[in-house]
Amino acid sequence: MSRIGKKPVPIPGGVKVAVSGNTIAVEGPLGKLDWQFRREVTVAVDEGGKQVVIARQGDSRGARALHGLSRAVIQNMVKGVTQGYEKKLEIVGVGYLAAILGETLQLRVGFANEIQKPIPKGLKVTCPDQTHVVIKGTDKQMVGQFAAEVRALRKPEPYKGKGIRYDGEVVRRKAGKAMTK
User: Fold this and answer.
1) Of 48, 52, 85, 114, which residue is most buried, by most CB within 10 angstroms?
2) pLDDT digits 0-9 by tens, 146-162
């Protein structure tokens, strides 16, 4: 039995959870999310205890794997509509900067042209200053995916540390060829 999967997801006040067919919809103060779960698991809302209970149909390897995954995704949905998710990116390098122009994120990170990255619907991207980008949203997967795509445009390099990194990320530095002599 999955230790994570058998633990029910508590529903905080102000959050509505509805299950219809194989779709679960979670609505809270920050927005609404819905997700289609696989038929190997069943999701039920226990109104008396204000919790979501996830159970699996069989004992196959796939059903066991999806049991814990489904519970974790539903927990992330509940947390997303109540608190939200946030990723912070830091831009390091001389002349490297970021700006928001309408619905696009403009990045100047050492290439000949500026990079125009469209901001997906459902995310709020801000630039408190030119070297920091803050990505906020209710969907954990969407926030993390967009942050990873922006970071992948110019990963931090190990010699000078220039590039886009997560806030607080430690970049392992290498000694240059001058250190060999």
Assistant:
1) 52
2) 999 999 999 999 999 89
The whole-model pTM stands at: 0.90
C-alpha span between 152 and 18 (Å, rounded): 37
Token duo for residue 102: 């309408």
Q: What per-residue confidence (pLDDT) applies to 175?
A: 87
CA 67 → CA 6, 11, 23, 50, 59, distances in Å? 8, 19, 15, 20, 10
For each of the domains in the chain, give its residue range(s) and CATH number, in order of start. 9-82 (3.90.930.12), 85-166 (3.90.930.12)
